Each structure stands twice: as C-alpha cells, then as structure tokens.
Amino acid sequence: MLKEVVKISNQHGIHARPAGVLAKVCAQYQSRIEMIYDGKVIKGKSIMSILGAGIKGKGSLEIICSGSDEREAMAKLKVLFAEGFGFD
C-alpha cells in the first residue's frame, strides 16, 4: 500500500472534466485507488464519488493505492495532479 499527499493545482478544484479524467486514469489500473479529502473517502474509479466530494482548488488530498500495479498508478496520479489534469 502506498500513500502520498498531493496538491490540487486546479484553481477551481476538481469539477466535471478533471473528475472524468481522474476516474478514467484510475480505471486503467488493477489496484484499489482511494483518496482522502476533508475527512471523506473517495473511490478513484467512481466519477460520482469524485464529484460528490466537492474537492476545492489549491488544497491537498491523500492518495492511497493498493494492489499489484500500485507504484505505476501512484506515479501516474502524481503527474496528473501536478499538471492540473490539463485544465485551468
């Protein structure tokens, strides 16, 4: 199991388009991917879970990856958050 705290670089947080990108990337991995934001557990492969968390911009969250490809998943997610999902 890997845990990492990342910054949310999107000024407007994770709205519909970034949430779609995030869920799609998470779905590419066998590992269980969850995020913790403001005390809420978010399922990385569920766009509804991501949107329902109300993730605001310029904050941070914790990513938890657990499974056979956890290292690859974590590396990709760290890059995705650092680049702002290609938005903002």
UniProtKB/TrEMBL annotation:
<protein>
    <recommendedName>
        <fullName>Phosphocarrier protein NPr</fullName>
    </recommendedName>
</protein>
<dbReference type="InterPro" id="IPR000032">
    <property type="entry name" value="HPr-like"/>
</dbReference>
<keyword id="KW-0963">Cytoplasm</keyword>
<comment type="similarity">
    <text>Belongs to the HPr family.</text>
</comment>
<dbReference type="GO" id="GO:0009401">
    <property type="term" value="P:phosphoenolpyruvate-dependent sugar phosphotransferase system"/>
</dbReference>
<dbReference type="InterPro" id="IPR050399">
    <property type="entry name" value="HPr"/>
</dbReference>
<feature type="domain" description="HPr">
    <location>
        <begin position="1"/>
        <end position="88"/>
    </location>
</feature>
<dbReference type="Pfam" id="PF00381">
    <property type="entry name" value="PTS-HPr"/>
</dbReference>
<dbReference type="InterPro" id="IPR035895">
    <property type="entry name" value="HPr-like_sf"/>
</dbReference>
<dbReference type="GO" id="GO:0005737">
    <property type="term" value="C:cytoplasm"/>
</dbReference>
<comment type="function">
    <text>Component of the phosphoenolpyruvate-dependent nitrogen-metabolic phosphotransferase system (nitrogen-metabolic PTS), that seems to be involved in regulating nitrogen metabolism. The phosphoryl group from phosphoenolpyruvate (PEP) is transferred to the phosphoryl carrier protein NPr by enzyme I-Ntr. Phospho-NPr then transfers it to EIIA-Ntr. Could function in the transcriptional regulation of sigma-54 dependent operons in conjunction with the NPr (PtsO) and EIIA-Ntr (PtsN) proteins.</text>
</comment>
<keyword id="KW-0598">Phosphotransferase system</keyword>
